[in-house]
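Is this the right way to post structure tokens for a design question? Let me know if I should format differently. Anyway, here goes:
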């Protein structure tokens, strides 16, 4: 990346990258100093004689003081020139984007920041508001806004991508560009971080950032998420040695193989989803058909096999070719695939799915979601467990909607497989599940090796259900303010990875109960024995350069190699 070297040190360009107006101001000051010195010694050159040498050090010091010379001290760049300036910081701006000329420049040598309660956000004509109105109330709904000098005004939120660098007394953030602030003391730095976290809490949850309100939002058992220093993080001690080890290659790697190039070759076209196989092949589901790719140890490679949706449909008038397939699920030893397409553009909900026979390349049937004679919708589908797709006789899978979690069966209630050629109505059988009254707002889900279920929600909560019950979660992790857009879990259920628009969250679910036994949050209530999660974020600069969909791109593939059950 061209701007990589610009991340190292903010001071490298301080001397020559000031704004033009600051340069001209300094030149004017130097000129004024020169004239003052000249006026202070009017007879210095008029007499036509050389000035006399000073006879003592006192005279030298007096003449130097008369010249008003400016000597910057060694710590001049670390101390504000105006010690009375409240909330003083030095402001930097990153320029050049992703080019070799990218670098940090000094935007303002010294300015101040304020957190302002306002109903107006950035860029809405409130740029010249008096800085003294630090906590002024806006009319109607209002939010905390960070204002830095006259150049930055942004609502406090996860979209800022704010990242702290305690060793440098520095914070970076995004606000119509990438900015950095350096503080002049560790106390100033800590004060800013505390204020920012309080404002972020109030903007996110709508409550003032008090201890009681934090307990109300997170619960007593999850205070370690708010204060990581009090959490039991013993479970993380061996994590780096265990979870980060790559498994031994299970498939051959061809010589001189450029896997990035081959992936782009295989993914040529409008790819909607990836059905990752545990056997030889995986499948790229596109706008017009399915492309078969071969699995290798570090990637996939196109095989040149492509099946169009409109070829070989089991009945004329099938809607498959006219719809966009957003979700694909492998079944029956990866010989069958079910495809789900949304009813409306931009909405994930679907009233049914298509069953595709991979071996024959034909659509076998169309299925409907129905409960008690009423058509219902689903927003996501998943295998019963990791590895369930390898069962050659498997006929069940899980479904998820905003307020529903259930299991579907492609057999009839008497256990007989439907005759797909003569069936008058291909209706899926609801065999298990729960329909919640309201408020769950489920978004995504995944399963462990034993069939336990993890569900992510719109409010950021992540719920863990055991394999035996879909009615009540064993553990419910609180949301951190952003909707969970994708979630996955390891085969053993010990680690969960959730994706949001601005960060990824890694959660450790195993704990030791009062009897000394090791369990996961799927099988028992964790109580207060919960380790603080790890938030995985891009730096503000990388996030800004990558664009708003940088985290969503990670949803195409399974983060944990879920079909093989490996981390």
């Amino acid at each position: 990346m061209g701007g990589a070297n610009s991340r190292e040190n903010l001071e490298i360009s301080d001397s020559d990258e000031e704004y033009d107006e600051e340069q001209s101001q300094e030149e004017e000051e130097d000129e004024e100093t020169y004239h003052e010195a000249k006026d202070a010694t009017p007879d210095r050159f008029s007499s036509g004689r050389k000035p006399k040498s000073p006879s003592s050090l006192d005279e030298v010091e007096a003449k130097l003081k008369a010249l008003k010379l400016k000597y910057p001290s060694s710590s001049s760049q670390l101390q504000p020139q105006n010690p009375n300036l409240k909330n003083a910081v030095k402001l930097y701006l990153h320029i050049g984007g992703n080019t070799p000329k990218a670098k940090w420049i000094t935007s303002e040598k010294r300015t101040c920041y304020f957190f302002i309660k306002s109903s107006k956000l950035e860029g809405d004509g409130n740029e010249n508001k008096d800085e003294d109105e630090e906590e002024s109330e806006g009319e109607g709904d209002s939010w905390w806004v960070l204002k830095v000098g006259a150049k930055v005004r942004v609502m406090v939120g996860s979209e800022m991508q704010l990242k702290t660098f305690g060793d440098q007394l520095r914070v970076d953030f995004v606000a119509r560009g990438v900015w950095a602030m350096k503080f002049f003391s560790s106390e100033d730095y800590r004060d800013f971080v505390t204020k920012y976290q309080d404002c972020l809490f109030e903007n996110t949850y709508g409550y003032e950032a008090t201890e009681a309100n934090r307990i109300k939002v997170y619960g007593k058992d999850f205070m370690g998420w708010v204060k990581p220093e009090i959490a039991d993080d013993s479970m993380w001690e061996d994590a780096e040695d265990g979870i980060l080890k790559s498994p031994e290659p299970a498939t051959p790697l061809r010589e001189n193989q450029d896997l990035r190039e081959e992936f782009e070759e295989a993914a040529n076209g409008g790819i909607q989803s990836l059905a990752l196989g545990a056997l030889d092949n995986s499948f790229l589901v596109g706008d017009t058909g399915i492309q078969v790719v071969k699995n290798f140890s570090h990637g996939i490679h196109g095989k040149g096999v492509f099946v169009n949706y409109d070829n070989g449909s089991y009945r004329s008038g099938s809607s498959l070719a006219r719809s966009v397939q957003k979700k694909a699920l492998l079944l029956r030893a990866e010989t069958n695939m079910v495809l789900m397409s949304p009813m409306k553009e931009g909405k994930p909900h679907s009233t049914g799915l298509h069953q595709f026979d991979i071996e024959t390349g034909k659509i076998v049937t169309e299925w409907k979601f129905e409960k008690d004679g009423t058509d219902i919708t689903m927003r996501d589908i998943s295998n019963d467990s990791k590895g369930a797709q390898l069962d050659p006789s498997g006929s069940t899978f899980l479904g998820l909607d905003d307020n529903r979690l259930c299991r579907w069966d492609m057999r009839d209630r008497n256990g007989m497989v439907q005759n797909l050629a003569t069936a008058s109505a291909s209706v899926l059988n609801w065999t298990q599940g729960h329909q919640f009254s309201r408020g769950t707002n489920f978004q995504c889900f995944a399963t462990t090796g034993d069939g336990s279920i993890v569900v992510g929600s719109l409010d950021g909560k992540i719920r863990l259900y055991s394999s035996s019950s879909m009615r009540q979660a064993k553990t419910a992790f609180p949301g951190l303010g952003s909707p969970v857009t994708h979630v996955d879990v390891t085969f053993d259920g010990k680690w969960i990875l959730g994706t949001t628009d601005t960060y990824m969250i890694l959660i450790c679910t195993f704990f030791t109960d009062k009897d000394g036994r090791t369990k996961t949050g799927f099988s028992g209530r964790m109580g207060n024995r919960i380790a603080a999660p790890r938030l995985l974020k891009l730096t503000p600069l990388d996030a800004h350069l990558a664009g708003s969909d940088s985290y969503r791109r990670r949803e195409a593939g399974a983060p944990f190699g879920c079909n093989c059950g490996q981390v």
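Format looks fine. Someone answered above. Worth noting: The longest strand covers residues 103-118. The radius of gyration is 31 Å.
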